[in-house]
Design a protein that fits this description.
Layout (H helix, E strand, L loop, with lengths): L2 H6 L4 H7 L22 E14 L10 E16 L8 E16 L16 E6 L5 E3 L1 H13 L1 E4 L2 E4 L4 H9 L3 H4 L13 E7 L9 E13 L5 E11 L16 E2 L6 E18 L4 E17 L9 E13 L2
Parallel strand pairs: 7-11
Antiparallel strand pairs: 1-2, 1-14, 2-3, 3-4, 4-5, 6-7, 8-9, 9-10, 10-12, 12-13, 13-14
């Protein structure tokens, strides 16, 4: 048993001893634990991509929407530093091996996306055995540093170029949310159990909208070499309020570059979608995660022109995949 799992399950030793010799059952309870082997990095490919459509008159069939495509591709490895402390917290060193943004728009911005500055950088944070990040200090500084690169001082004031910093933040901050928010107790989780949490929605506009994410645990699947895996399905709906421990990516006043700079008073009309994770229970690691959802946003245009009612539709897909080291 790996040290982190021993630490987390110490109080459950008696319960586990009663079930250790029983054959695996598809309906057996599970304990979801995020585990890291000493000096063994886990490398992931994390991708966020979206099509954004802006329609200035949703009622008109003649007016074509203005479309923008954005895609962020990251490769990040995670390695534990030292042993878990007395509280079961492990310090993780994350290293970004590559960060690439592809953007296709009517008026394609020049220069690199601010988040591409993440390539070659390392950062640390602390995480519990249940996947809850407990120390955000370095993450907060890194997000603010990347966000500052997206803003330029011009003769027209501070202008923010399009960037996908919030996508990186979402992929990192929410990476183990399915485990961290499950509320599992000493009795474990039964297949079919559901729980809900709030998560940030990355958008082409810097607005702090959130979604409600409901996870549902599937049956335990036993494969080769008695390897146990579970599927964790998720559905998404419109959320309210803000998030605890969310970084301030941008500071000071600024104006958005491009068509979004002409819009204001954004309101989320709907969030719909679903996803699925594959979690290796035996190894305590996330193998794969796919999220697909659509967000509809209503807005106003500067000057409140009559007959103009802007509507933004964002078709978003986010994936996380464990790579061979």
């Amino acid at each position: 048993m790996i040290l982190r799992k021993v630490t987390f399950l110490f109080c459950l030793a008696f319960l586990l001893s009663l079930t250790a010799c029983q054959p695996a059952s598809r309906k057996e309870k599970v304990w979801l634990v995020v585990d890291f082997q000493s000096q063994v990095p886990l490398k992931y490919k994390l991708v966020s991509e979206r099509d954004s459509f802006v329609t200035f008159d949703a009622k008109s069939s003649k007016m074509k929407p203005d479309k923008t495509y954005e895609k962020l591709e990251l490769v990040i490895s995670y390695k534990p530093v030292g042993k878990p402390d007395v509280y079961g917290l492990t310090t993780i060193e994350a290293t970004c091996h590559s960060a690439k943004v592809t953007r296709k728009a009517k008026n394609k911005p020049s220069g690199k996306d601010a988040v591409e500055g993440l390539a070659g950088r390392s950062y640390t944070f602390k995480v519990s055995a249940t996947g809850k990040i407990t120390d955000y200090s370095n993450l907060d500084k890194l997000a603010a540093e990347l966000g500052a690169k997206a803003i330029s001082e011009t003769s027209q004031g501070r202008i923010k170029a399009p960037d996908m910093v919030a996508d990186f933040v979402c992929l990192q901050w929410h990476l183990w949310d399915s485990v961290a928010t499950s509320g599992q107790t000493t009795s474990g989780l039964k297949p079919g159990a559901s729980w809900t949490t709030k998560q940030f929605i990355p958008l082409p506009i810097p607005i702090g909208f959130v979604r409600n994410t409901t996870y549902t645990l599937g049956d335990v699947e036993t494969g080769a070499q008695e390897q146990k895996k579970v599927a964790i399905d998720s559905t998404y709906t419109t959320g309210e309020g803000g998030l605890e421990h969310w970084p301030k990516i941008y500071t000071g006043g600024f104006r958005m570059k491009g068509m979004f700079g002409f819009l204001r008073r954004f309101n989320v009309a709907s969030v719909e979608g679903a996803g699925r994770q594959i979690f290796d229970v035996e190894k305590g690691l996330l193998e794969k995660d796919t999220q697909q959802y659509k967000v509809k946003i209503l807005a106003n245009i500067f000057g409140n022109l009559p007959g103009v009612s802007p509507e933004i539709t964002v078709d978003q897909k986010m994936t996380v995949e464990l790579l061979d080291n």
